[in-house]
Amino acid sequence: MARAARPSALAVDRAGDLWAAGRRGLLYFDGDHFTSVSLGDEATQPLVDVEVDSQARVWLLASDRLLVFQPAHAIAAP
After folding, report:
1. Which pLDDT value is given to residue 19?
2. At a CB cut-off of 8 Å and minimum separation 6, what does 58 contact?
3. pLDDT at site 4
4. Beta strand spans in 17-75 (E)
5. Consecutive 10-residue runs of the chain (78 residues): their mean pLDDT?
6. What is the pTM (predicted TM-score) of this model?
7. CA 30, CA 47: separation in Å to the nearest integer?
8. How many Cβ atoms sit within 10 Å of the Cβ of residue 46?
9. Quick check: 48 and 56 in contact, CB under 8 A?
């Protein structure tokens, strides 16, 4: 039986959605489904921490860099 990947860190945004960072990248949970978030070539090392700021940006700490991700659903109309 395969072992499930364990997240290194979890964060919840203002909408109540869950972000999970780990060895396999970033996952987003909207309350119904998990979605793998593509970070392109930016995250080449496992993610070790995740935080969401007051502007709904998702900050990711990898072992070799700091990344920021702006979710499309977090962009509000003026």
Report:
1. 95
2. 11, 13, 19, 26, 50, 51, 52, 68, 69, 70, 71
3. 54
4. 18-22, 25-29, 34-37, 47-52, 58-62, 66-69
5. 71 93 89 87 84 94 89 54
6. 0.79
7. 20
8. 14
9. no
